[in-house]
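Dear support,

I submitted the protein below through the web form. The confirmation email said the job was done, but the results page showed an empty box. After a refresh the structure appeared. I'm attaching both so you can tell me whether what I see now is the final result or a partial one.
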Amino acid sequence: MTDSNKESSGRFHEKLSESIDLGLSAKELVEKIVRAALEAEFGGGFTRSKGFDKMVGTIADVMVANPDLRRQSLSIASSYIGKKIQVTRPSPVPPQSLKNKGLKQ
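What the results page shows now:
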């Protein structure tokens, strides 16, 4: 992977991590993926061009309608949502540490 590809990949991961959320519909999740990919590859100026939102919507419609692309896209979204949930949840207290503090499990 070249340095340019690494940068693009990093921007994609960062953008998707920021924008993805559990409450989004399948189409909204796919739109977030498409938007993050295009922005990472072509930059923020491209995403502000006229017709960009319509293009993202059209691509997302095709991806959601195609069973294989839908499954792959939702799998990507699921992995990002899972990571986000793990980061926001406090880690469970090991039972042994509860005993050391005189607390019941």
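Response: this is the final, complete result; the empty box was a page-load delay. DSSP finds six helices and no strands in the chain.
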